[in-house]
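Model it.
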Amino acid sequence: MKLISSSKNPEIKQLRLLYDKSRERKKQGLFVIEGERELQKAHLANYHIDKIFLEEGSQSEHQEIKQLIDEKPCLKLEKSIFQQISRRSGAEKIIAIAKSKKHQLESLKLPENALVLVIEAPEKPGNIGALYRTAKAANLDAVIIANPKTDFYNPNSIRSSLGGLFLIPTAIAPSNEVVDFLNQKDFAIATTTLATNAVSYNQYDYKTPCALVMGTESTGLENSWSKASHHNLIIPMHSSIDSLNLSVSAGILMYEAARKNKRLE
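Modeled.
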């Protein structure tokens, strides 16, 4: 196994670019995975692993990771080089480059009783990762990102999702196309908007197929969603606070929907 001891090595330069530049990730069709748990989940989700980087002297105790290391191009990095590259501290000593997938709306396969989360214009990678982690925990069928404002394969999204981002079918498209798609599939569209006819989230039945549609904390949803919405939901809160974090709000709705549809029994 080749040992890399220089930060000027072309492999290291490529790895840095993929970590730091969304443009490069999109141009090359590649992204970075750091950590064994995240790599295992990406492999489980049939992502193609292009190559693997290990810190010198480290080895995995997981059979699945050992097999990947044996099968894929693998490079060892001197400890100082690995620590320069790594964005995580602790016991994680493995980084991989993987091929990104196309997340086309028309390719999204859903069951008849689908329960999906739609997030419009999410900006914070950490929030996106947290949403995916909760969506998987609540056993949702898919996540649709409308009008994305950040790269889906941002390393911070992957890290904060603990790899859950790989495990849920995802589509990415403009909001108007998402609305058309949901209407064609006869989804009940439930939005979180301040409307006079809004009902408390725990009074809604979440009858499937159902789409839970969330906007950003700062600007909410585009006007097109107010026309498309079948039900407006609110989360009651104390008068001293006027909003909740996006991932917290979505988590409350997802778990209520999962509970009423017996998704976790």
